[in-house]
Amino acid sequence: MNDLATQLTARVRGRVLLPGTDGYDDERSGFQRLDPHRPAVVVAAACAEDVRAAVEAAAAHRRPLAVQAAGHGLAAPTGGVLVSTRRMCAVRVDPRARTAWVAAGATWRHVIEAAAPHGLAPLSGSFPDVGAVPYTLGGGVGLLARRYGFASDHVRRFDLVTPDARLRRATADSEPDLFWALRGGGGNFGVVTGMEIGLVPVSRIYGGSLFFDVARVPDVLDGWRRWTADLPEELTSGVTALTYPDLPVLPEPLRGRQVAQVQIAFLGSAREGRRLVEPLRSLGPVLRDTLRDLPYTESGTVFDEPDRPHAYRSQNLLVRDLAPRALAGLAEAAAPSSPVLTVVGLRHLGGALARAPRTAGAVGHRDAAYSVTVLSPVGEGERETVREVHRAALAPLADAAVGRSLNFSFGPLDQDGVRSAFAPADYERLTRLRARYDPHGLLHANHRVPAAG
Q: What pLDDT does residue 337 have?
């Protein structure tokens, strides 16, 4: 056992795992399986003091440190320290205050299930098994976003360990600069051990999806865009286009077809929801209809995203509008003729997302009208092909682009890419705060903000 592991083993209540030891591979593996990282040591943290011990040891031995909750990002450098927080999954709900304290490794599913008995819900995303803390650090555009805004706008406090190994509490009144940076600036400023968030009075939604065969309804993406032009803020929607493989495990109507899945989450009655969705039904034949009144505990069925870990990459743009030519290019990227399986995801923004919160945060580009993401599984020898398909799909959107979302960018971004996620003045402020809180570059975040100077 090396000196770093010896120091950690003496202080950590959880497990300390080295390459080749039982549990190491399981602990370092997350949902994202492309380029699996090999840290020199994994700290399976059981509490905030374990996190502090890991930060202190990494700094003393001059090793970079990364954090993994549910593992949808992939940040741990080879030879560094990986802090796995998945055992820190406690959630405490205060129904009177409509708040929840959420530990570092809790997923949105943990929070949803804890809040539901009180008629409350968090501003969770489309996939409930994503880690709540890292999702929120990146802003967070969820199923209720047009009505309630970004998840990060609803954080009341962060508990964290900064790179100087200090336990801190960041709120709008204490550590206001750090609080601002954590609300949208990513994991560049400390290791969050827990956060207190506001909950909203939601127990049920009218939600689900309508599936269309793109061959029979070729203008479905543009039809969805036109439909979003005049919707109430209570309705948040998206559309996903892809070509399904012809496999028996898939629903029969979808097999072997290029399908556009329009996703709906409406905060209102089923009757009003059906009325609002009726123009979509008129676009053409519906292959499958899963729209219904449902408890928020089943909100993951709206997008019904794959739940098996796999290797993938994505690129994202935030745009002012969606021109028909650009939508045609996106549909082509998701067509059967594409050299790699490509999933195109569009999200309707605006509403509360466009308004400044009561307490400012680092989230950028609130003026964006839509989010556009292209994602592909990556097989052996497909990296360059995936990169080129994604580049070509997003190229027609360049004139409408205002920036990008860090949360929808699954893969490494260069400095210009990270910069594009923020307003220029905010990005410069983030670099100064990185220099203040992490001058030696200890933290290895998924999307790195460099230190100024």
A: 95
Longest dimension (CA), the chain: 67
- Three-state secondary structure readout of the chain: CCHHHHHHHHHCCCEEECCCCCCHHHHHCCCECCCCCCCCEEEECCCHHHHHHHHHHHHHCCCCEEEECCCCCCCCCCCCEEEECCCCCCEEEECCCCEEEEECCCEHHHHHHHHHHHCCECCCCCCCCCEHHHHHHCCCCCCCHHHHCCHHHHEEEEEEECCCCCEEEECCCCCHHHHHHHCCCCCCCCEEEEEEEECECCCEEEEEEEEEECCCCCCHHHHHHHHHHHCCCCEEEEEEEEECCCCCCCCHHHCCCEEEEEEEEECCCHHHHHHHHHHHHCCCCEEEECCEEEEHHHHHHCCCCCCCCECEEEEEEEECCCCHHHHHHHHHHCCCCCCCCCEEEEEECCHHHHCCCCCCCCCCCCCCCEEEEEEEECCCCCHHHHHHHHHHHHHHHHHHEEECCCCCCCCCCCHHHHHCCCCHHHHHHHHHHHHHHCCCCCECCCCCCCCCC
Encode pLDDT of 426-440 as tens digits.
Answer: 999 999 999 999 999
The model's pTM: 0.95
Which residues touch 19 (CB under 8 Å, ≥6 apart)? 38, 40
Mean pLDDT of 277-285: 96
Q: Taking all residues of the chain, what is their mean pLDDT, rounded to a whole number?
A: 94
Query: Could you tell me if residue 175 is left (phi over 0), alpha (psi between -120 and 50 degrees) or otherwise beta?
Result: left
Asked if 154 and 123 count as a contact pair (C-beta separation under 8 A), the reply is: yes
- Residue found under tokens 């990002």: 73
Q: How far apart are CA 170 and CA 29, in angstroms?
A: 30
Residue 366 has pLDDT above 80, yes or no: yes
**Residue linked to tokens 């479905």:** 220
- What is the structure's pLDDT at 75? 60
Contact 126, 305 (CB under 8 A): yes
Query: What is the crossing angle of helices 3-11 and 48-60, to 10°?
Result: 160
What structural domains does the chain harbor? 3-84 (3.30.43.10), 91-201 (3.30.465.10), 204-415 (3.40.462.20)
- For residue 303, what pLDDT is reported? 95
Contact present, 51 and 161 (Cβ < 8 Å): yes
Residue whose entry in the numeric block shows the structure tokens 């089923």: 270
